[in-house]
Structure formats: structure tokens, C-alpha cells
Design brief:
It is a single chain. The protein has 232 residues and is mostly helical. It folds into 2 domains: 114 residues, Multidrug-efflux Transporter Regulator, Chain: A, Domain 2; 92 residues. The protein has a 3-stranded antiparallel β-sheet with strand order 1-3-2. The radius of gyration is 34 Å and the shape is rod-shaped. It starts with a strand and ends with a helix. About 3% of the residues have low confidence. This is MerR family transcriptional regulator. InterPro entries: DNA-bd_dom_put_sf, MerR-type_HTH_dom, MerR_fam. Keywords: DNA-binding, Repressor, Transcription, Transcription regulation. It comes from Blautia stercoris.
Amino acid sequence: MSESGYLVSQASKLLEVQSHVLRYWEEELLLPIGRNELGHRYYTRYDIQVILCIKELKKKGFSLKEIKKVIPLFYETVKQEETNSKGDNLEREVLEKENSQRISEIKNLEKAERKFETAVNSVSRSAYSGKRKKAQKAARAREQKKKKEQNRQTNKPDGQESGVPKEFMEILNRIVKERMKEQNYRNQEEEKCRKLDEKIRICQKARKEVAVAVEKEKQEKHHFFRKKKSDA
């Protein structure tokens, strides 16, 4: 074993995952596991961290098909944090950007809700005003031509007895459909944010575990060489 690489048996022991499972995940998830000069699998620290993330996601009940979609994100994340001394700041910036995007989406949805309410109120006022004018006109007509108006009321076309214009109902139905579509979009975005937060927390936990595991491996190696030296 070198400082930055592990054979499959060593990776299996470190990760507490059987070798055949590691090979199966490599094939199913298309993991870019390298090979040494002898053609044996060679797991880097990046690979170890990604496999820890996979292990945690499997515990959470995610399928390999779902996990496969985020594998590139895992590799990109661990490599950036390994090479960037300001990884914590970068992570905070990403989270702040995501939060900013969520706040922007919420504001847009609230703005759409206000527009919806304004439109409904406007249509309602328009419908009420039109209804009132029709009532006044009908009252004047009844006074002038009572008998003729009675016949007109008897023969009034269907759909106008309620005093609600057909155009108003069409507009209201369209607005309600748009409102339902916006609500569905909000629910979908909230679900995406929740899943993303869950994956970020899993990666953070996995990074801590791999750091502890690597430190433990170094200590065991140091103890082994000291013991070997003392025996010699």
C-alpha cells in the first residue's frame, strides 16, 4: 500500500465492504477505478471517499440507479476539496448560493400569488360592476315596458341567469389552473432541495469518516514499523 492508494483487499478492510461488492459497484456505477502496473485495482483517496458516500446512500435506501446520477458530483466534490485549501469557504459559498436561489424562487412564487390574487379581485370587481349595470338597466326597462320585460326574462338564454359572464368563468378557470401548476412546481422544487440537502449531509459525514479511517490506518502502520524495529 502506498500513501495515496489501496488494493482491493485493503480498500475492502478499510471500508468494511466485501471485495465482490466493490467490484459490482464499480461495474454498475461505472466507477473510474484505476489499475496498477500489475493490472490490479488501485483505489485512491478520492475513490474511498466516493465509495463511503455510496455506502451511506445505500443505507438510506437509495437504489444504484439513483446513486449513479450523482457519482460525477461526488468525484468533483472530493477532488475540489482535496486540492483547495479553502474548501470549507467554497462549501459555504455553494450553500449560500443554493439558499439564495431558494429565496429567489420563493419570492417569485409569492409574487405570482399576489398577481393571482390581484387578477381574481380585478375580475371579480369587473364582474360585479357589470352585473350591477345590467340590474339597473333591467330595472329601468321593467318600469318602461313591464310586460315586455317579463317575456324577455322568461326567454333569457341559459348561462346568464346567475349574472356571471361566461368570459369571467373562463378567465377564472385559467387562473386556477395556472395557480395549481405553480403550486406543483413549488412542491417539486422543495423536494429537490430536500434531496440535495440530504446528499450534501451524507457527503460531509463520509468525508469525516474517511479522515478518521485514514488517520487510524497511519497509526496502525506506524505502530507496526515500530514493533518490527524493536523486534529486530
